[in-house]
Amino acid sequence: MAYDEESRETDNEDGGILDDGNILKIIYNLLRNRFGQMNWWPAESDFEVIIGAILTQNTAWTNVEKAIYNLKSRNLLSFEAMDAIELDLLKEYIRPSGYYNQKALKIKEFINFAKKEYNFSIELMKKENTAVMREKLLNIYGIGEETADSIMLYALKKPVFVIDAYTRRLLERHRIIEGSLKEKYKNLQKYFADNIDNIDKIDNTDNIYDEYNCNNKINKISDNKINNIINNKINYERNTNNIINNKINYERNIEIYNEYHALIVMLGKMFCKKNPMCSGCPLEELNHLV
Ligand code: SF4
């Protein structure tokens, strides 16, 4: 399937988004057909995902695996154990991941944050509002956007798309996004968010739950008013359907975000390397610069 150059749109003279979003679906399907289901993240617990997301900064995953092994074999992959361990010992165990002095401090900062704000409960963190949680993570020393979003998506199961170097490379080489827009993480993230099915409904989820609670209260107040009871019943049923539909879309988007990022990483590792190997790549038939 060849991608049609004529269908692209350019936002402005300085470059911008060159596509209406359909290309993302085409790429997703091509990658999924070739690589199959990814089932990320490679970890045994949400806590391990978080530690892995910090350790993988500026290093290859094989180095992270060695550091994780050091921690896991000593039963250190828990909030309590990480809280108790001496900083110097932690540095020693995560040394294989590189930048271990900084990364040990970052892990400790995260542990302190989780203790103070969520009493070491990942379940409480999962219940936090998406935007609030992301902002809190970004305020922790050493947690940038890619790390925060990896934690959000893969540990906390929030619908947040992760942008990394592989994603930038893919978008750039296929001329999907260009110019000054491509520099900003939030522009790339928004492009994915705007163009993956049903994403527009996600941001309303919290409000809809509020609306549901509000209608419950109204129902109680209006017991003796027939018209109000009928209207509230209609609203209640409508809102219940909305909640169910939004919950389905919310979870579906988390799954697509999860798979899509993992597929892009696989693409980057196997084909779209620093020196691209376009021959045999699942996206070979699409227009690209290299
Ligand atoms: S390797 Fe070539 S065809 Fe494959 S994604 Fe990269 S630029 Fe596109």
Written description of the protein model:
The chain has 290 residues and is mostly helical. The protein folds into two domains: 230 residues, Orthogonal Bundle (Endonuclease III, domain 1); 55 residues. The protein is 61% helix and 0% strand. Helix 2 crosses helix 3. The chain starts with 21 loop residues before the first helix and ends in a 20-residue tail after the last helix. The N terminus is likely disordered. The protein binds iron/sulfur cluster (SF4). The site of iron/sulfur cluster has 14 residues, from helix 10. Iron/sulfur cluster binds next to helix 10.
In CATH's first tier, which class of the largest domain applies? Answer: Mainly Alpha
Tell me the radius of gyration: 22 Å
Q: Could you tell me how far the N terminus lies from the C terminus, measured between alpha carbons in angstroms?
A: 18 Å
Net shape: flat
Which CATH architecture of the largest domain is right? Orthogonal Bundle
Number of helices: 13
State the fourth-level CATH superfamily of the largest domain. Answer: Hypothetical protein, domain 2
